[in-house]
Amino acid sequence: MRSIKKSTLLLTLLFYVTVIVSFGSIRVQAKEYVIGVEDISYYPFYDFSADNLERPSFTKELLSTFFLHQGYKFSFVALPLKRFDKWYVEEAIDFKFPDNPRWRSQESKKLNLFYSEPVLQLIAGSYVLKKNKDMPRKAVKRLGTILGFASTLWYDRLDNNTLELTEASSSFSLVKHLLTGNVDVVNIDKNVINYNLKLLKHDASAVVLNPHIIHQHFSYYFSTIHHPEIIEEFNQFLIEQNQLVSTLKLKYEIIESPE
126-214: CATH homologous superfamily? Predict the structure, then answer.
């Protein structure tokens, strides 16, 4: 009788151990966070594609370092720019980078997003050939941008059809369009322009910001809906690992434009 009771007790203990181990396994698996990134080469900031998520960039190295530092499992998923404001709903991602409150559509404004402290401070402006640095806004006839980017500073001219829009699938193509005179202005970041000018054997001074056309300061943020506690950890990481972040900016030749 005692032998039966012992066997029953042993089986019961084994059952609970199995449940606990299984539950623990589920919890570990749940810690693989999915980071949504843009499916485009926008080096040095990021350089992801659906076929290759391993190319080095500032974003990949910074976020990988943070998640490894915290001991979290993570993966990147490259998603189309055209659906940027729907990533959280349609792709069920945990985080998004880059992000910015000004990029939100009316639909996405319904989502309760949490943003990190600024990761990079940049300028949204109009870049032209050096000879056109004083070109007035009304004289611009052709605007070049990345397919899927929102040309917010030119909406009025685009809406009244007084501006021709050329969309390229890569920043390299866009810079070539500017150098050959196919477009008058491009609205991609100067760090990206500089990298592509180097590839094309041109000096960085060949393309400049036109100060006579409206430009705005903005930032790249890390965002989430469901994990604000991770965002807080990321903010602390930016403070504690300030030297590391500065080293990464230097490594990828990123020049910020603080206000």
Answer: Periplasmic binding protein-like II (3.40.190.10)
